[in-house]
């Protein structure tokens, strides 16, 4: 018969595996309905953390009953929750007037709330039962729990999503739930008939934890949780909104618990040594100011999250209470995690117009690092005298403030690169000397961030109309030289306007006359006559509006009201005000809005739905292509913009074209030096039509060599709402 400890380890691992397998699974199921904005995942994570807190509170409440009665109650709740199987998304679509930050948790909560709640209680509850058996210290079981969670998360993008359809995933998870019930029953059979060991543990435990101790636990749990969500937002904004990238920060966050709560402490001690240096390196990347960070630096931000989470969670483990207060400890830990999620998912988007939560959380991490000896011998001597520490810290912080202002150009109009470098290096050197001195190190870390773009970003934040933040991302409008105004989303350029007199209507950036979309819109009268009907998904700065010709009927689709406000504001861009002042704009997720539009209502449909450098997966599935085909006239042309730094989307479109009966041609436009001076940028567009003669006409009108045939990749299956994966189309450019 399997022993008590292996039985409990297996049960806890299985429960955690299912718990964190369902998170990306249900988010993937919701993608076609909720859209692909990166903030959708943050809202979903907030719900998961709230349900986790509820499960931990339930486990804490059960502690008032004898262990065997706890088992009866929990197994009964397990059976009751099974009526929500098989797992899936409940019916309903988001109303246009409801804030998606509230609608997303509501929909997901109705779909998986009871099942998630009962499984979430596993870790603390079974550790409590394990204490009752007298089999040993229960806290290392939490490491096993998070190892199971990590396995569930990683299994989804690497195995479950690429291989199984959503229906098969739902059935498999439901079978796993049944197996978990059996494992919980076997674990409950190990419980003794009396709670003598628990009573003895309570008698020897001493007084309960005081308020400051529990607040410290809360802070140590909140900062890594918030940092995980802030890192997720950055990654999914600049690559693609899909579970493969959603789960990486969360997986590392969970894995940090497995290391931090392990009985062997060597890894935690090693991470504690390097954490201050990694934090200083991360401070240098906290304010990219529109600069595209290489993918290798994005990996570095993941490493920073992992190390900081290990160190702070390790400090949390070192301050753990007696097992008599185990469920209270986990309840506070879960509450802190939810606070971190609440800050990033709801509070930060409301009070900040840029992602300031990331540098704030880095500063919080620097403040919470456990005390340790200084890194350098000079630092040990500097801080040796307790009476001198306050003065030294004060002088360092004052000097750091002055140097950060000097390096940012606040004290001199145009500081040279040498001055900037000297300021940065000096602040960094002082921060290294201050390692081990909590407030001095945290303050100097903040000054380092301010020196490297922080002051500039704060100046942009207080400038009216320069930065806008919505549920769907952060937008910035700024001038680049005297003749250009640019719109950026994340670190991706989304629009450029030529400010030279007489050139304000000129198409720019991805929309050059020789680009794929430029060729199609310029030849629209030849293809469809003077009254062509043109639908455009994704408004941006409104650049395409100036392609409109007399007699044409245009309709824009835009998910974000803030983007509409930017495009309509003449102080930002004048494409709409000059070319289509009364433009018809439909608000909402384009796929859902188009599904309700009249059939055969457009001659040209343009899909240009960027979210920074990501393209929402749900707009490229076979079902989405069917919606586009229904909206288009039989000889209509579908244009899809697939420029992307990280993903090769050509096989996706080619497979969808093959399966949907579309003819597809590719236009890979690369501007020459003269065109670059006209503010044109390279772009990749695909033109599709179910009428071969229309594609032939477009090729003839465009001229020889403009379009190439888009061939399907052998063995590549088209994406569907039920099954899709980006593993095979990653470019892997570091």
Form type:
flat
Q: Helical proportion?
A: 55-70%
User: Whole-Å distance between the termini?
Assistant: 51 Å
Helix/strand-derived class?
A: alpha/beta
| Rg calc | 28 Å
General description of the model:
The chain is of the alpha/beta class and 734 residues long. Helix content is 58%, strand content 10%. It has helices at residues 4-34, 38-62, 67-81, 100-120, 122-133, 140-163, 166-188, 196-204, 211-238, 243-260, 266-283, 295-318, 326-351, 357-368, 377-382, 386-408, 417-433, 438-462, 516-522, 524-528, 561-568, 575-579, 590-595, 622-631, 650-660, 673-677, 692-702; strands spanning 467-470, 473-479, 484-489, 492-498, 533-537, 553-558, 585-587, 602-607, 632-641, 663-669, 683-689, 708-709. It has an eight-stranded mixed sheet, with helices on both faces. A four-stranded antiparallel sheet has the order 1-2-3-4. Strand 3 and strand 4 (492-498) form a beta hairpin. Helix 3 (67-81) crosses helix 4 (100-120).
